[in-house]
Amino acid sequence: MIYYVSHWDWVLLRSRSDIVKNLKNKYKIVGITPLKNNTENLKMSYDSLINWKLKRENLIDLLGIYNLNKIIKDIDSNDLLHIFTLKTLIYYLLTFQDKTKRPKVVCSITGLGFLFSNSKFSSVLRIFIKPVIKRRINQYVDVLIFQNKNNKDQFLKFSNYRNNVHMIEGSGLQTDNLRLKSIFNEKLKVIYIGRLLKEKGILEYLKIADSFKDNNDIEFYVAGDTDPGNKSSINKEELGLIKNQTNYLGNINIGTDLYNYDILISPSHHEGFSRVVLESAYVGLYCIVNDIPGTRNLINVLKCGSLVKKNKIAEYIKIIKNINEEIQTLNNSEIRSKIEQEYSVIAISKKFEEIYSDYV
Questions:
Q1: Cα(20)–Cα(29) distance, rounded to whole angstroms?
Q2: Strands 164-167 and 188-193: what pairing?
Q3: Angle in degrees, CA 200, 203, 206, rounded to 5
Q4: Cα-Cα end-to-end distance for the chain
Q5: Residues 6+ away with beta carbon under 8 Å from 91
Q6: DSSP 8-state secondary structure symbol assigned to residue 283
Q7: How many angstroms separate the CA atoms of 122 and 59, rounded?
Q8: Using an 8 Å Cβ cutoff, are 329 and 347 in contact?
Q9: Are 107 and 145 in contact (CB under 8 A)?
Q10: CB contact at 8 A, 283 and 179
Q11: Mean predicted confidence (pLDDT) in 318-323
Q12: Considering only 23-27, 54-58, 148-152, 283-287, which range has the smallest mean pLDDT?
């Protein structure tokens, strides 16, 4: 049996639920996560669910560690845990498991996130968490999966991890759920999609939008929500600015709504492997993104947009002003073919299955 584990139920739903469906003919897969808003949707994919009682908004929930410890102790040593996200890995490493009786453990680090950001708080947090990771990770984790080389090199140096390492770009895209774009709007629509976090570049996006406030030929939209408890989440005043300066949509249905927009802007400070860029490229949007490890290879391989030096607002503005020339470079049929071959749910499922076959 395989257990998918995450500190956030959304992680086990988005893309992983499609992977679970794809692997059902070979494995029984159980989800371990705090059951909140996505329980019914998760039930449609997983064989069963275990409610991990955890306060996700807490930096570290001690009771949540205790609850995870109880869950894992009941898992057979012949089974496999597949952990998703760095934060979930840290929770797992803080549990007290008998290393001789533990299940096999695979962990997908989907991005280094806030812990490896440049904030002073993060740098202090790393000092405290590093000894825990270094002391336990080689004894309690059999495989690490990374989504880009930069994350891999940085984390391996930080953790001194010496066991098996794999690179799998992306988390799997279910392409048949996406409505495709055929033509661009006469009045161009620009969109930011994602959690409203400072580290995702939402404040830089507002500056870009503000520079076009007197331009009647372009509209700016924001799709996403705040993330209470996340140190990088915007406050109520900043959410008010978003609502005043852009067309605020809240959360949207990517499959049915994304094709309405023309340009994706992602000024994110760091990414594991940007799913929203992958989705936007497949649908047919032109993507303008920060030149960072989690987006650079994607833009270069797919040729689906432009890379901008980190937080160079003037460069974003320049590209948007010349967008009619830029969009002529898109070859949507070639982009979609490459995504289906390399980054689809089927492609990622096969790579997971190759890893699983060594352990279950």
A1: 7
A2: unpaired
A3: 120
A4: 7
A5: 7, 54, 60, 64, 65, 68
A6: H
A7: 11
A8: no
A9: yes
A10: yes
A11: 91
A12: 54-58
As a residue count, the chain comes to 360
**Which amino acid appears at position 358 of this protein?**
D
Q: In this structure, is the dihedral angle defined by the CA atoms of residues 320, 254, 38 and 31, taken in order, positive or negative?
A: negative
Cβ(203)–Cβ(307) under 8 Å? no
Residue 327's pLDDT is what?
Answer: 79
> Per residue in 139-181, pLDDT tens?
999 999 999 999 999 999 999 999 999 999 988 998 988 999 9
User: Is pLDDT at 6 greater than 80 in this prediction?
Assistant: yes
The first and second tokens of residue 22, run together, are 């794809």
Over residues 247-269, the pLDDT tens digits come to: 999 989 999 999 999 999 999 98
Which residue bears the tokens 């774009």?
Answer: 181
Residue 345 parent element (H or E)? helix 345-356
Q: Kindly report whether the global pTM for this prediction surpasses the value 0.85.
A: yes
What the block records as the tokens of 184 is 């661009």
